TrEMBL record, chains A, B:
Every ATP-grasp domain range: 493-529
Signal peptide: none
Keywords associated with the record: ATP-binding, Ligase, Nucleotide-binding
Organism: Lactonifactor longoviformis DSM 17459
Protein name as catalogued: Acyl-CoA synthetase (NDP forming)
InterPro entries named in the record: Acyl-CoA_Synth/Transferase, ATP-grasp, ATP_grasp_subdomain_1, CoA-bd, NAD(P)-bd_dom_sf, Succ_CoA_lig_flav_dom, Succinyl-CoA_synth-like
Amino acid sequence: MTDIERLMNPRSMAVIGVTDKEGAFGQRSGANALKSHIRDRVYFVHPRRESCMGKKCYKDLKELPEIVDCILICTPAATVNPILREAGELGVKGAVVYASGFSEDHTSEGIAMEKEMEDIARTYDMKVVGPNCLGIINNVNKIMMWGLGAWIDLDTRPTGIGIIAQSGFIAANIVQLEQFNISYAVSTGNGNCFTLDECLEYLVDSDDVKVCALYLEGIKDASTFCRALEKAAKKRKPVIILKSGVSEKGAKSAASHTGNLAGSAGTYQAVFKKYGAVMVDSLEELLCTAQMYSVLNGRLPKVNGFAGINFSGGENTICADLCEKYHVKLPDLEEKTLKEMRNYIPPFAAAKNPLDGTTSLFTDREKVYNVIKAMGEDPEIGGVLVGMNVAGPRGVPQKEITSMEAMIQISDEENAPALFAVPSYEGDRDKVWREKLESHGIPVLSSAEIAYKVLGKLGEFVEFQWEKSTLAISAPDKAPTGTKCAMSEWDSKLEIQKLGIPIPAQGIAAIREDVPEVVGKMKFPVVMKVNSPDILHKTDAGGVRLNVRNSEEALEAFDSILANCRRYMPDARLDGILIQEMAPSGLEMIIGVTNDPQFGPVLLAGLGGIFVEIFKDVALCPCPVNTYEALGMLRQLKAYKMLEGYRGSRPCDLKALTDIMVKVSQYALEHKNTIAEMDLNPVFVYGEGKGAIAIDALIVAYGDR
Amino acid sequence: MTDIERLMNPRSMAVIGVTDKEGAFGQRSGANALKSHIRDRVYFVHPRRESCMGKKCYKDLKELPEIVDCILICTPAATVNPILREAGELGVKGAVVYASGFSEDHTSEGIAMEKEMEDIARTYDMKVVGPNCLGIINNVNKIMMWGLGAWIDLDTRPTGIGIIAQSGFIAANIVQLEQFNISYAVSTGNGNCFTLDECLEYLVDSDDVKVCALYLEGIKDASTFCRALEKAAKKRKPVIILKSGVSEKGAKSAASHTGNLAGSAGTYQAVFKKYGAVMVDSLEELLCTAQMYSVLNGRLPKVNGFAGINFSGGENTICADLCEKYHVKLPDLEEKTLKEMRNYIPPFAAAKNPLDGTTSLFTDREKVYNVIKAMGEDPEIGGVLVGMNVAGPRGVPQKEITSMEAMIQISDEENAPALFAVPSYEGDRDKVWREKLESHGIPVLSSAEIAYKVLGKLGEFVEFQWEKSTLAISAPDKAPTGTKCAMSEWDSKLEIQKLGIPIPAQGIAAIREDVPEVVGKMKFPVVMKVNSPDILHKTDAGGVRLNVRNSEEALEAFDSILANCRRYMPDARLDGILIQEMAPSGLEMIIGVTNDPQFGPVLLAGLGGIFVEIFKDVALCPCPVNTYEALGMLRQLKAYKMLEGYRGSRPCDLKALTDIMVKVSQYALEHKNTIAEMDLNPVFVYGEGKGAIAIDALIVAYGDR
């Protein structure tokens, strides 16, 4: 049994600081522990009590008849570390610490106490959940290590979702919503000892968890986190993530909540995308998505295509609109399917996707069955969406019962399509019918707008091909040391040329007399730029001359650039003039790298100039990036149309461009501990087969230069 | 009493074709009619029955003791027109026709029957709702003219929202949801006799309607529709519109549903925006928005700024993220407010907006009261958002009751801010508490994502200043006749020059010998272009020469352009060469006009080139457009940053640009019956005070040329 297993699935446990004072951690945690299936091996510990809740209290851990797997510490912050140390000495391997008052308080005392806790955990190889948490509910093995009144009936609640929340109340709220299938719920609190990352890996590994749902403010260890995502991707186990703190004010709120740095929202999103994890925006979307995957239980749509059927023309129109808005694919059905559908719908109804079922189908289960079946058998359809509220002020209406019976019949057949109930309105669904649908593998989604958003992302999940992705990041081994230094343009370009990235022929004229020799090896026209570590805005300094057409012009340009720059900044070091062939203009792209402190180098691609800066039309992917991923990045750009060939212009050389992207990402990977940023700007991309070339480059690295 | 009043609020009515056959229109409509407060003046008509539901049946309308205000026709399609005609002869002014089988069937017979119905209605000045509808519920006067089992208790249901739905089932579903305050619900069906537009005007005029909610597939009469929106804007009465059929498949679905043309989604959106109407995407959003305004009952936030308070750090972070996503303004609170808040929150909590209330406020009503009060008194705050689900599997939790009591206390005070309950999850809200909050003017919104979307749009509504808008469209008086003809560039530019829009000096050289004289009046460099009605792609034909620097080059260019064009298209009519001064380049904008068949000319503005075509970054506004609206259009553009001055570049001459926009819109208005399209592309915009100039122009009009 691993240490983590002893924490998550203990065979025995002790509640330390148990009490019967209503509302205290000791009371709630004790009462919950007694609901566990291991209740015979649950022990209460209190230094001054004989018994509590009718159960014997031991004075301390040493008195217990066995060394328990896990302890639940219900005492205040100041008392926690001594208890942990004692437990560690005894060989206890798991602990839950509820108390707050540690690093999240941002006091030096709190931070020091939490550091000490980490030390203790390391020293004794203990897995410690918390502090500032609500603990763990294990509904697979029916064990409660939970510090709040938990309205969950372990005997009846179905399993499915593994929840990790960096917010106790969010975990608690989710658990108490009866309609969700919970396998584990973990409130990680500050999460510096037992991290969210480790916890995720445990849940991904567990066969009892069909889908992981995370409320995430920030991670601790990128490598562990991404290893878990990698395993999940390979198992096709969905990981649903509500990453909060993505806004400016949200990041501040997260910081004062659990002390997590929110990090760059864009980087997180790029990491999730790389591993096919599903990013959501709200709790409702998190829950709807998680429950959907739990109910589908692996029976995903075979293709990313949906057919819709509604029993109101208006709702059918809204369905079509929302599907377009949320990128839910509604393929045109093939003629065979339409023909079959026409056998069951009235002559005035139009056989279409989505289908207005009309009132004539309201009460005819046979017809509804046949229509849905025909839709589901269309080769382009992986799932059928049925509009219904599974509710009504006077009970579930007959038209919905007709449809639900038909859906259940289909769902029980072999090779059935995935089926979904899509409500128009919020409101409690009918419990009995909801459970009936779900037990036959048919999820009841949230009201339409969230539902279609969730379905659009389900389509992406269906299309995600992990085999083609690198499923890797380049997390740095250590924080960079030294200061940031920018290489000169000349050196930066030489560096990328070594990678096999085309650059224009270039040379340096240190003195005027070098000019003829340098230009002698080049084709005119050339470009001349001052080479100086001090002059950053060369154009402003009059340090750039384009379209130099012959040697005479080159000599004149040499003099004039130097004169301009001396005037502009008299003290600047001028290391000669960089001369390069002027490349024919192509589509201007930017390829760049930033280095995220947690996830390491992240590749960026976008169309040059204001497209990046004003329209923020950029794609990110953590390095390394392979050709498939590079192409995926380009496809994410709104400007992709321009690369594809736009208004009769030829398609661009995507092969050459992605080749550069892959090489840059490889370089960044190899320099992950030192690179600060990298910019190829612009890269000119030419027509198909004509290549691409980096016109300018800048590499900034940490070092001691 | 007007005719429309006799329809919407009849003093007497007759149910024609009453029956006791369960499920038939005659049965439902009859039973509903008897629930009306005018039940003493409700008459049943059936040619062969003595009585029905214990009530006497008359043989026909003529037998009734009075000429009723309104008749409800429950008989099949083929029988409707004769009944209507008979009623018309008698002087009946209102009718509801439930039957389908008219124009929505797309059969020539159905279309003809509906045309006849329109004739009858016109001849006898009758207001006829339907066909293919469910009728009207008037909850103000407690009258049911409704063809479906309606689970609405007229005696208890509060009034507030006026609903118009071009889908019977949508109307019916909304009405049966008990939590909505309904004044009127109208299912307009095909709506060719009594249109949605007329109905909207009636509801806007009615003081018993606080907010109008529309499910709209398409309108019939733009002038009436916009007149209603204008009245609503001036009264500050919110009109909430779910315009469906905005997607390609949605438009098709709408067409086969009620035969309405969906029209251009962009144009509808622009029209709504002009009048400050609120556009929503889903039924849930429609209902949440409508009920919110109904509950607020005119007590809108005084400024567009919100403060948020949540009782879970996680939910507080999500609140901040979603507010940013949906443009809900969360201003930083002023120091005075923060200081006041700090008196009530624990020392470790951060006084911020949004605020994590922490558990210490859970049960302390006094503290919650004081914190919310302080937030609401901040000059930048118009509304306070309180995170709560108003529900729970074990009843409403104590922490929510604490907050709700505090909110109610504040809401009852003078000058209270608007208060909102924002749930995280879907689910039925507690009825008692929901009603308690709402009766004190506090709306309970939908789950967070919809809620913040609704609040973002509420902010826009608060900021909308109808006094500064034209509140007008330029609907054409008649459909255009003749064929589309494009004016030449020369003529188009002369036309816009007459409006006072700057254009470059231009001249035509019909023959080579004209060139010196034409260029003699100009400053070099000039641009030369072939002038031909046949050559549309001048550049492809070699018909354009830029940067012509002197007379000699101009003569050479003349020859070469003509030669190129003869080669390109030997039969083309060549009407000489257009010569114009080459303007210094500026920021390239496109100003255009399209002519919507219903709403008339619509002005378009966008940054030139691929910004419009690839990024679809355009703003639309129906003509006429004044300076305030023109500036509003520019502010909608993502590219607005470039007009404002970007990375140190000077701000553009917005005055000159909006001046051009206003003039173009005025021209379009004056030619609303004939104009097809208009394009000023590009318009060069220079720095502040330096003006703007239309470099090229094209006017296309319908006519007999």
